[in-house]
Amino acid sequence: MSMARARVGVLISGSGSNLQALLDACAQADSPAEVACVVSNVATAFGLKRARKAGVAAVVLDHKAFGARADFERALGEELQKAGVEWVCLAGFMRLLSADFLAGFPGRVLNIHPALLPAFPGLHAQRQALERGVKIAGCTVHFVDAGTDTGPIIAQAAVPVLPGDDEESLSARILVEEHRLYPLALRLAVTGKVTLEGTRTRVDAQATVGELSLRSPGAP
Ligand code: GRF
Distance between CA atoms of 98 and 69, rounded to whole angstroms? Predict the structure, then answer.
């Protein structure tokens, strides 16, 4: 007997390597989620090709073509609704979403950020981390609220900052963890194993304490 899979819409603006990780995870036979549609606000985003290659509907909605943010968000909401989307994953999506839009998917919008939040929210998180001289960097998957990278944290993964790192090398090391963490966090969310509790989340005691730990499997 198979359960209906949660229908997920993924919003992108660029390369879409996190989208790829989600597509790959959703291609597994036992995945509790499926990617129902991908929307990019940038027509040239490489992630659109990834979506189409995986046989997923990919739509461009250029925010610049809309007069006001509310109009863009209305169109976005309609696209997601058409695809029967219940959950939304932001994956390198470079627009902020209003509280109004988020109210359409209460507690069902996730984001990935390349820093150990609440440190280094906003743009160029890896550069911020290098400038501040931290020794441990990483990534965070969190529920989205109307702030910038402020929502309740679901999962985090850490990587070392090594001597000689630049933005590119650190970003690449973090990205490996992003690709592991996002599918995991999505699975926990759609199966109800992580739920919102005010400004925090509660993770089912049985669920993946190991998987959610600070170190990646196989780390020394
Ligand atoms: C990732 O580093 C993600 O954490 C951030 O934007 C980047 C998107 O990369 N929000 P990609 O498009 O998934 O390759």
Answer: 8
The helices-and-strands tally (H runs, E runs) of the chain is: 6, 9
Instruction: DSSP for 50-118, please give it.
Output: HHHHTT-EEEE--GGGSSSHHHHHHHHHHHHHHTT--EEEESS--S---HHHHTTSTT-EEEEESS-TT
Q: Is 14 in the pocket of ligand 1 (CB under 6 A)?
A: yes
**Closest of 218, 145, 149 to residue 177, by C-alpha:** 218
Alpha-carbon gap, residue 158 to 137, rounded angstroms = 6
Atom number of ligand 1 nearest to Cα 16:
12
Atom of ligand 1 nearest to the CA of 114: 4
What is the DSSP pairing of strand 194-197 with strand 153-160? unpaired
Rounded to two decimals, the pTM is 0.94
Residue 2 reports pLDDT greater than 80:
no
Query: What residues contact 42, with CB distance under 8 A and at least 6 apart?
Result: 12, 13, 14, 60, 62, 94
User: How does pLDDT run across 100-125, given as a tens digit for each residue?
Assistant: 999 999 999 999 999 999 999 999 99
203 lines ligand 1 (CB under 6 A): no
Q: Quick check: CB of 178 below 6 Å from ligand 1?
A: yes
